[in-house]
Amino acid sequence: MEAAAASRSPRPSRLIIELDPPKGTNLQTFLDAALAIRGRVNGIRVTDNEHAIMRMAPLAPCLALRDKGIEPAMVINGRDRNRLSFQADLLCAAALGVKDIVIKQGHDAREGDQPLARTSGDLDLDTMLACVARLNGGKDLSGEDLDGATDFTIGVYLELSDDVNRNRQLADYLLKLKDFGVQSVTLSPTYDLNIIELFLPAAEQTGIRLYPSLLLLKSVTMIRYLNNLAGVPSIPQEFQKKMMQAADKKSAGLQVAADFLRELQPLGEAVVLVSLGWKDRLPEFLNLIER
């Protein structure tokens, strides 16, 4: 990995923020959080029942952002849809002017706030990508002509797991994504640079933009919980030690993320910041990184 690290070249300091829609009908708090960081970040991404926590669907928040002059990216997952509703929701988004999407399989519903929810099991990532490629080409998944094609900019969210990290031929897989018209790949959060570096040669070969993501660490308990999740890359001990030694754990979590952001930036075209309920502290974090 030393060779990969040595070959890193400086890149523009681009930062994309993920915001969760409200759990209810009130959009004002969501909009206040977005407006508080407008002009300080390069993009805002609206999540879709992230971590299987039921929230408002992302389309309405995206439209509310567009009304404020902010062009959002909309996450859309396959966990909560079959291929009919997936295509229907995409047509609706396109008709209303949302053009930037990020396709995600979605976390297991059993991990969320409504663990009895059932998933259709109809959509894997390849099927979702085939749907979007067809819609952009003026047809639906069954090959029927559309009365008006979509024009989506396509991003894909990849969970970092043992399967991705060890077994997949990454260059071949990213080439497959490129064939579907994928322009960017967002990697799920990790504090292990070695994992991200695995993707660099494949991203360079395919021309797909690579977006590492950064999770704000709220507590030592949170780190221990994440480190106990099967298949999820562990957070290195050094970060847990920094949090344990700090008197103010939450402020320490922001500082740890700010320091690590400097390491992440050379590895991708942009870094995606996962606020995970800390949208009220985003201005403080942006101050910390001098944005």
Automatic annotation (TrEMBL):
<dbReference type="GO" id="GO:0035999">
    <property type="term" value="P:tetrahydrofolate interconversion"/>
</dbReference>
<keyword id="KW-0274">FAD</keyword>
<comment type="similarity">
    <text>Belongs to the methylenetetrahydrofolate reductase family.</text>
</comment>
<dbReference type="InterPro" id="IPR003171">
    <property type="entry name" value="Mehydrof_redctse-like"/>
</dbReference>
<dbReference type="Pfam" id="PF02219">
    <property type="entry name" value="MTHFR"/>
</dbReference>
<protein>
    <recommendedName>
        <fullName>Methylenetetrahydrofolate reductase</fullName>
    </recommendedName>
</protein>
<dbReference type="InterPro" id="IPR029041">
    <property type="entry name" value="FAD-linked_oxidoreductase-like"/>
</dbReference>
<dbReference type="GO" id="GO:0006555">
    <property type="term" value="P:methionine metabolic process"/>
</dbReference>
<keyword id="KW-0285">Flavoprotein</keyword>
<keyword id="KW-0560">Oxidoreductase</keyword>
<dbReference type="GO" id="GO:0004489">
    <property type="term" value="F:methylenetetrahydrofolate reductase [NAD(P)H] activity"/>
</dbReference>
<comment type="pathway">
    <text>One-carbon metabolism; tetrahydrofolate interconversion.</text>
</comment>
